[in-house]
């Protein structure tokens, strides 16, 4: 599973999970992507995406509250 998000938002999510005592499963890869300048396909490839495995996508959208 790949968790794709902006690097700053992703770091915030990881900090929140750690503070709550939620561990990262070995099947999860964090893929930081600046959507204004980075290529999503390239970032996923660099993170180890196996295109032959028939990936599935789930897209969640939300806002971070500080």
UniProtKB/TrEMBL annotation:
UniProt name for this protein: Uncharacterized protein
Matching InterPro entries: Ppm1/Ppm2/Tcmp (IPR007213), SAM-dependent_MTases_sf (IPR029063)
Entry annotated with the keyword Transferase: yes
Gene3D superfamilies assigned: Vaccinia Virus protein VP39 (3.40.50.150)
Keywords on record: Methyltransferase, Transferase
């Amino acid at each position: 599973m790949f968790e794709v998000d902006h690097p700053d938002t992703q770091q915030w999510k990881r900090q929140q999970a750690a503070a709550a005592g939620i561990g990262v499963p070995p099947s999860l890869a964090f893929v930081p992507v600046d959507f204004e300048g980075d290529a999503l396909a390239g970032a996923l490839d660099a993170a180890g995406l196996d295109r032959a495995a028939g990936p599935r996508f789930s897209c969640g959208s939300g806002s971070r509250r500080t």
